Amino acid sequence: VQPIEPSLVSTLKARHDMYHAVVSASALVYVQHPSAQPFNSSVTITLPCPPNPEKKREEDESEHARAIRATVKRVATAYHPRAVNASLRKNGENLSDTLKLLGHRNKEEGWKVFDDVIIQNARNGLVSFELNEHLESFVVIRFSFLLENTYLLLFARALEEAVCSTMANVILYRKRENPYKIVVLLSASKELTCELQNLHEEGYFGPPEPTQQFPLREGEQVHFRFRGNIFASENGKDFGKVYRLIFHSQRKPRLKLQIKEVDEFGNHSSPHYKGTAVFYKITREMITKKWEQPLPYGEYQHQSPLCKLALTLPKHEKLINRPRSTRRVSSDSSEALWDNLLYWLAEELAEDNTSLLALCLPVRRSVLQLVRLKCPDNLTHQIYELLCCWKKTLPRSADKQQLLSHYLRKSGRSDLSEELCFKWQNKVFT
């Protein structure tokens, strides 16, 4: 017995206007019959099927007005008996729901509407009917006005498909202190916020952000591989393989991987190595009988990817041995150490519970919202992310230290402004 949540019915109605008449649905029942022999006598089935809330509201209102109508009837009947009776019949009409049984004898035959089955309303939102034959699956649908059988059949198919699938997201986060270590996992969309919080506590953060949600059925798989100038390994040795995650709504499938650049001289025009994780959905029909063996990449590479996530890795400064006669042009390496300086500043501000708005940084409100969403429970990380976002908006020629000192003084933190100036002049970044 598969219960049907009212929210699921509402979602289907919101997606398709043709289902607007549907009020509710009973549980979706799957039956295994021990014998193919016909029934000797009919079987009474009782199922919960929520009533129409509009009808219940009307009945409550009619209780309040019943005494008034009775008084009016006694007084007015003597003068206009026929008109009063007609008026009372019109006002006393309730919203009449229709109940239909849908089912299928076998999967090959498909869904069918059983118009000859009489369904009766019982108390407390229960409905009952007599069943005279074997049905592998059936459901009762309540609708408020006439709906063609074609739409009912479409609704039953959509309902069955929606019940069997769960909306999910792919998360790919990396260790803050070691960006070469990543975790990839599947999470049900309704548990995404909780899962992100758990990853933050373990020291994993984005970017990239989680993918858009997509439907997955129990037991379906997501295969992924890395493209571009980044590849991955589970053991630090075998790189370039295809990896997979098996979806289970009650489990949290995850993989911890190590990533590295394919070509250390690649992406020469960028300060980072760039790559992409490409994900493919493997349905249960595509999975081989030996499910523990991964499906060959050639079996699904022709299909469109389920989603993609962009990755970057920082480049290391290469130590090159040059002869003494070679003149080396020194570059300002302080830019690479700004992250340490900003993180120190974030820790100092977080100790005093400084709010993001109190920093007086010229950033958009959407940036503040994104920072709070990205690090909901860690003020240090929020301030650090905000400072990084502000720094990215500045041109290369800007004096970052002077600007940041100005905003610190404006925020009432002259002490930190002076200490920042000292650290910058003495190249102290820890």
Overall description:
The chain is α+β, with helices and mostly antiparallel strands. The chain has 3 domains: 6-164, Chondroitinase Ac, Chain A, domain 3 (Sandwich), CATH 2.60.220; 166-314, Immunoglobulin-like (Sandwich); 333-425, Death Domain, Fas (Orthogonal Bundle), CATH 1.10.533.10. Helix content is 31%, strand content 25%. It contains 10 helices and 18 strands. It has helices at residues 6-15, 53-76, 81-91, 149-164, 192-201, 338-351, 365-374, 379-392, 400-410, 414-425; strands at residues 22-25, 29-30, 43-48, 98-104, 112-114, 119-121, 126-131, 137-143, 165-175, 181-188, 204-205, 214-217, 221-228, 230-233, 243-246, 254-261, 272-282, 307-314. Strands 9, 10, 11, 12, 14 and 16 form a 6-stranded antiparallel beta sheet that branches. Strands 1, 2, 4, 5 and 8 form a 5-stranded antiparallel beta sheet that branches. Strands 15-13-17-18 form a 4-stranded antiparallel beta sheet, with no helix packed on it. A hairpin with a 5-residue loop joins strand 9 (165-175) and strand 10. Helix 7 (365-374) crosses helix 8 (379-392) and helix 9 (400-410) packs antiparallel against helix 10. It is elongated and about 95 Å long.
